[in-house]
Amino acid sequence: xxxxxxxxxxxxxxxxxxxxxxxxxxxxxxxxxxxxxxxxxxxxxxxxxxxxxxxxxxxxxxxxxxxxxxxxxxxxxxxxxxxxxxxxxxxxxxxxxxxxxxxxxxxxxxxxxxxxxxxxxxxxxxxxxxxxxxxxxxxxxxxxxxxx
Length: 148
Prior knowledge:
The chain is α+β, with helices and mostly antiparallel strands. The chain contains 2 helices and 8 strands; from the N terminus they run ββββββααββ. A two-stranded parallel ribbon has the order 1-4. Strands 2-3 form a two-stranded antiparallel ribbon. The model has no long low-confidence stretch (mean pLDDT 93).
């Protein structure tokens, strides 16, 4: 895990495959070679060299449909239409986690970074494993926003 995810106070988010199919703007069905319900191959593995447990949590990060900047020129197969595209990356998983953090701070503005990270970890679990289990690919697992 590289910078900035290796910062101890940063919430480092692994990417999970929740979608591997989409329809592009021409109506062509597309398929990404990613297994559903698994950690994405591109998601960096921890822990850090000093043994710090990273990543912290996991969020959806594969073939996420998101807003398309008028300035970007993505490959045609990823364009859903003139407004949206399907994209994969930890750069797609992080906004998911940040949205949850924003909602937490809206509810309780006095939370500090350490408390937010603890809430995220405490409300995450690796599928099929008990909460609190750490894995070098999953971190502490998928964030369960429902219980936050």
